[in-house]
Amino acid sequence: MDVHVHMSSCTPCRFKLLTANYLGVKDHILSRETEDLVRAAEITPVEVAEQLLKGRDEPNHAFRDMIEFLKAKNKENEELKAKKIQEELEEKKRRKIRKGKKRKK
């Protein structure tokens, strides 16, 4: 049986809580940029926590690494959306062709 578990997206508020918990940082010079990227990305709190754990000893590096991760994730999400749209268009074309063939018969 194929079971999917829906995990909620990470919000800027959750991101702040995670950075406070994992890095001990309540405010950082890169917080605003990171929060904007979090808002745009479709990531889970687990993915954020995983990234923050990598830079636990150095908050500056953790924030820079998080920004790079979020940019990559945003790019990946955009590519997946574009691919899905392309597949939907191709499926519509196939249906239209099948419909046309049925009418000719």
From TrEMBL:
One of the Pfam families matching this protein, by short name: AAA_lid_At3g28540
Record protein name field: AAA+ ATPase At3g28540-like C-terminal domain-containing protein
InterPro entries: At3g28540-like_C, Mitochondrial_chaperone_BCS1
Domain AAA+ ATPase At3g28540-like C-terminal: 10-79
